[in-house]
Specification:
By secondary structure, this protein is of the alpha/beta class. Helices cover 48% and strands 20% of the residues. It has a five-stranded mixed beta sheet with strand order 2-1-3-4-5, with helices on both faces. The radius of gyration is 16 Å and the shape is globular. The model has no long low-confidence stretch (mean pLDDT 91).
Length: 171
């Protein structure tokens, strides 16, 4: 029913809010700055962190490089990586986060690239496939995630939540 959908939406938003609030608190305590380069999440990570009071102390930069052209021009992702592996690949995700780190000067940098659907999936790269890259100082972690959620928005939210959990586990 519509009512249970609204309650679920509110519950998910609350969970996301608390995850983000805890992250902001942790980053403040550790005096760390964070930056994001987003593709399939379209700025949702950036939006959710800036919704928390005090984010200006820890948040440095958020960019949405949605098109391949933006990935090449803004994040200096090598055209060959995009041609050989595609935008939705561990290689592209790694390049995005490494180059974000050069631009942002933040201690923690995060990149997200994937297929939020409902279209655009293939057998090898299904809808819900999302790569998340986290670079903390010289440590780099790129994870491949397959989200089974049905809608575009729920895949994006799941990717944001997973990114927050990964960041929290690394700081």
């Amino acid at each position: 029913s519509l009512c249970s959908s609204i309650i679920n939406l509110f519950h998910n938003f609350k969970k996301l809010y608390f995850l983000m609030k805890n992250l902001v608190k942790s980053l403040m305590q550790k005096k760390l700055k964070i930056s994001f380069a987003e593709s399939c999440t379209g700025g949702m990570l950036t939006s959710s962190i800036t919704s928390i009071s005090g984010a200006s102390k820890i948040f440095n930069l958020g960019i949405v490089t949605y098109s391949n052209q933006a990935k090449i021009n803004v994040l200096k992702v090598n055209k060959i990586i995009l041609q050989k592996y595609g935008a939705v690949s561990a290689e592209c995700c790694e390049s995005m986060v490494n180059n974000l780190a050069k631009i942002s000067k933040a201690q923690i940098n995060v990149s997200v690239t994937g297929i939020a659907g409902p279209n655009g999936g293939t057998k090898n790269k299904p809808v819900g496939l999302v790569y998340i890259g986290v670079k903390k100082s010289n440590k780099l972690l790129v994870t491949k995630n397959i989200f089974k959620q049905k809608t575009r928005g729920s895949i994006q939210k799941a990717a944001v939540k997973r990114a927050l959990k990964i960041i929290n586990s690394l700081i």
